[in-house]
């Protein structure tokens, strides 16, 4: 049973199921947790949220004398529980199938809701990062509180559904790269931290570090930063200074977060010692900096840049896997699991000779994501997109291989997987 109550009636021992109100209003990394910390209780009461949902099955109930604004059963949770419970002899196959379908539909609906939220968040986050870079260029201090708030909002989106924001932020124009790259690395760092099983506090710290990791690029002349061709040795030497300049900028702004400083300074180090600025190798590179190296490179090679078009997500992972000595292999493997073997937006060939684009991951089977069909290889004709869950009971379709989107020239591929009109066309200049 879920109950919506006033924040004044919230007590320790209750299980917070959600916050009633704008998702920007509450200060928490998680949306659902057991309230056992007095500091968290105080944060709830001092936030802009005035009502919360509690789950009385998983925590304390309110006294009978307390007014409850609303009380409902939790069909979504029950559907999820039905799919996870041990099968009982008296439950017929049709009932089990219905429960799986309900849970799948619910998860899909949450994903599409988060895509819409993520689109709004990207706009505000991009503006905040752009302002930060502008402040640095003008000699003003970085507003730590604003950047913390942006990182927390990104972390909250990743907690609700990691694939939504990460998938959307990959689709950016070359002009947006400098600012949205910071947003992307923030989100990727949070998702990777969760995949590695790091505590919430460290996951938040990873996100904050990712958001600030490239602030030193504000000191690079724009004609070098946005140069459409290959850099000269002199220009590349200037670019290589950005980690140390960023580290200096953060310290000057009074930002003493150890992870943020370390990732900013060392996200270009390599496991074989071939990176910069300090040529660190192996365990001399911190866990956070090793994470930052993977996230930074992945977003860089999948994004449109002034001098090249971004690579396909699945192809990017394949290439990164061959760069021996560059990344920590354990961290890279966790990174692949956090994105999926076929990340959202990947073009794949199905066993029925159709091309499809990946629209959503299946966390239980990375080889069987949800896809949308786009083209028939038999006829060469475009198809009305059809959503196919490759993990659904009875589905015998499989992915045979990755496909290069550039070869097939499908201009609305990003629009198809996201459902957002025009997505990808502006980034590609279409």
TrEMBL record:
Top-rank taxon: Bacteria
Database matches in InterPro entries: DUF3391, HD/PDEase_dom, HD_GYP_dom, HDIG_dom
CDD domains according to UniProt: HDc
UniProt keywords, alphabetically: Hydrolase
Keyword Iron: no
SMART domains referenced in this protein's UniProt entry, alphabetically: HDc
SUPFAM superfamilies cross-referenced by the UniProt entry: HD-domain/PDEase-like
Keyword DNA-binding set for record: no
Pfam families: DUF3391, HD_5
One Gene Ontology term of the molecular function aspect: cyclic-guanylate-specific phosphodiesterase activity
PANTHER family cross-referenced by the UniProt entry: CYCLIC DI-GMP PHOSPHODIESTERASE PA4108, CYCLIC DI-GMP PHOSPHODIESTERASE PA4108-RELATED
The name this protein goes by in its record: Cyclic di-GMP phosphodiesterase response regulator RpfG
Source lineage: Bacteria, Pseudomonadati, Pseudomonadota, Betaproteobacteria, Burkholderiales
